[in-house]
Amino acid sequence: MFKGKKLALVALVIVLGMFLVAGCGGGGESTETSSDEGKAETINLKVGHVLAPTHPYQTGLEKFAELVAEKTDGKVKVDVFHSSQLGNEREMIEALQMGTLDMTLVSTAPLAGFSNAFLVFDLPFIFEDRESAYKVLDGEFGTDMLNSLENSGIKGLAYWENGFRNVTNSRRPVVHPSDMEGMKIRTMENKIHMASFRTIGADPTPMAFGELFTALQQQTVDAQENPLPIIFTSNFFEVQDHLAMTGHFYAAAPLLISKQLWDSFSPEIQDAIQEAAIEARDFERQTVSDMDAELLGTLKEKGMQVTEVDKKEWREAMKPVYDEFEAEIGADVIQKVLDAQK
Ligand code: EAX
After folding, report:
1. Pocket test for ligand 1, best of 85, 108, 162 (most atoms within 8 A of CB)
2. Do 209 and 88 contact (CB within 8 A), yes or no?
3. 119: Cα within 13 Å, side-chain hemisphere
4. Within 13 A of 97's CA, how many CA atoms are on the CB side?
5. For residue 176, what are the contacts with CB-CB under 8 A and spacing of at least 6?
6. Kind and range of the H or E element at 11?
7. pLDDT for position 155
8. How much distance in Å is there from the Cα of 107 to the middle of ligand 1?
9. Domain range holding 75?
């Protein structure tokens, strides 16, 4: 009898120990560290994203971690978790709101589910080119949009870059929008993305990024759309034969932190993190742009059949989406984004 009780006690101690070590995914765990100048508290932040460890999201966040450590004299340590280890994009945004995750780097598309205003960024061909996108995102309009997230418990630090999205598929070459007729395409969980492909006769299926490779491999879906750095670093060329250079959406990638955690930081720590987010943004954007330039050749070498398209034809074919969502987004908001690029 006594032996049984002793064993149960030991098991209880082990289980309790495991919980203490694991800790939670967020809340900015502080650990006391002793130093010559007495106790200096270290703040440990966890940031999650869904892409591969070779994607610029990862290398950009590693740069961010380096800069934060430098600017806070080692007081703030950032750990980066790739490949949906901390959840898919919608789950991580929800975790920020609850304060159970510290930071995440996501596309704007899932944010539209938290703040309707973000829908404007997902309109097809809304941005002429990268420079026009940066002008809007880094200017007053983009900053106001990030600030609008604070009512939902999220602090937006800066817009990093996912990039211009292109269509891949396993069935046939795509040149004209009509070539997508009946094609089952995975989209992000965003109603404008789905409507844009429905408008040209495709059959959109919203799906978390982490499930996409398997869905393509098992041909549950025929197609997907993403920028070249994702198509390469997530090995989509292994399961997709055709690449059409549509560039139909520009995906910005806001770096987000839990508002309740942000508010707990001193102004000095906030300034250091904000500065690092901007400096690492420029590094990450440049990395995406460089990869975009070199990857077309690489993907052809990997066996993908690449088709160039007439972007005007695609823009016209997807235009009904503007009418469909004008009331929800606001004609003035759409016009503001178009004017801010002039
Ligand atoms: O933000 O889901 C997607 O296709 C996105 O490009 C990805 O989540 C990166």
Report:
1. 162
2. yes
3. 24
4. 13
5. 309, 313
6. helix 2-22
7. 98
8. 6
9. 41-163+252-293
Count of domains observed in the chain: 2
The pair of structure tokens assigned to 22 is 């694991």
pLDDT tens-place string over residues 125-137: 999 999 999 999 9
Parallel/antiparallel/unpaired status of strands 38-48 and 29-35:
antiparallel
Name the residue with the closest Cα to ligand 1, atom 6: 226
Q: How does pLDDT run across 278-293, given as a tens digit for each residue? A: 999 999 999 999 999 9
- Is any atom of ligand 1 closer than 6 Å to the C-beta of 292? no
Which residues, in sequence order, are bridge partners of residue 158?
255
* Within a domain: 3: no
Is 102 among the domain residues?
A: yes
- Other CB atoms within a 10 A radius of the CB of residue 334 amount to 17
Q: Is the pTM of this model over 0.85?
A: yes
Tokens 């598309």 locate to: 109
> Per the domain annotation, does 191 fall within a domain?
yes
Tell whether 78 is covered by a domain.
yes
**80 and 203 part of one domain:** no
**One domain, residues 119 and 90:** yes
